[in-house]
Amino acid sequence: MSGERRLTVLSKAILCSLGLIVFSFFIQFNFPVLLLALAALFMSAFIISKNLRSFADLKRVTGEYISCKITLLYLLAGLAMGIMLAVIYRWHLDLSLFPASLHLFVITAALIGCVEELVFRGFLQEYVRNINGPFSILFSTLSHTCYKCCLFLSPAITSDVNIGFLALWTFLAGILFGTARHLSRSLLPSLSAHALFDILVYAEFVMAPWWVW
After folding, report:
1. Plot region of 46 (φ>0 → left; ψ -120 to 50 → alpha; else → beta)
2. Which residue stretches of the chain have pLDDT < 70?
3. 72, 150, 155, 185: which could form a disulfide with 24 (CB 3.0–4.6 Å)?
4. Which residues contact 135 (CB under 8 A, 6 or more apart)?
5. For residue 126, what pLDDT is reported?
């Protein structure tokens, strides 16, 4: 890839990330500020759609499967990773290591995690990968971390979330998910890990929290 092409890819990736970050920061505001969040989301969606014009483009987002056996091994590793991270997270919050009940909100929670993986580890990481593999992991992780933190830093809401812990946890999990995606060349390990993590963490939520729009 030429230097000019790398610069173009990086510029679009940064714009896409900034759009998602602005969206998360302003989505809780009322009209007309809400329009800024929607415009930023539209910009990111436009950049993503411009790079998903064929089945081959979509396959690059979901991943090139090396073989069924190897994909299955990485998938099992992803599930184990999701369980391990959820147990540690619940332990930190002084909750039982595994949920005592399971409510319908976990479906929404898992879907949110899947969409985040499709955008950050699927599109962004794969889009930047041709510049540099390790850099693509770091880029997608930082983008996802900023997106998460800005959601809770928004002055439109009052939240008692420990932003430092949220940032550290999201960053470390992102590095693990991104590495699994990079090594496996498939989105399945990180997607399954993220979805299972959200299911185990939010299993006891009866109603959707404020950050579900």
Report:
1. alpha
2. 1, 64-67, 210-213
3. 150
4. 128
5. 92
Q: Which residues pair with 63 in a beta bridge?
A: 186
CB 167 within 8 A of CB 149: yes
Contacts of 65-68 with CB under 8 Å at 24 or more apart are 65/185, 65/186, 66/184, 66/185, 66/186
One-letter identity of residue 126? E
| Whole-angstrom distance, CA of residue 91 vs CA of residue 98 | 9
Q: What are phi and psi of 158, to 5 degrees?
A: -110, 125
Taking the C-alpha atoms of residue 18 and residue 15, their distance in angstroms, rounded to an integer, is 5
Phi, psi of 187 (to 5 degrees): -85, -15
Report residue 194 as tokens: 């993220």
The two tokens of residue 62 are: 């979901």
Cα distance between residue 65 and residue 185, in whole Å:
7
Position 100 scores a pLDDT of: 86
Render pLDDT for 114-155 as a digit per residue (tens, 0 to 9): 999 999 999 999 999 988 999 999 999 999 999 999 998 888
Whole-model pTM: value is 0.91
CA pseudo-torsion sign 61, 65, 68, 69: negative
* Rounded-to-integer distance, Cα 45 and Cα 199, Å: 26
End-to-end Cα distance, the chain: 40
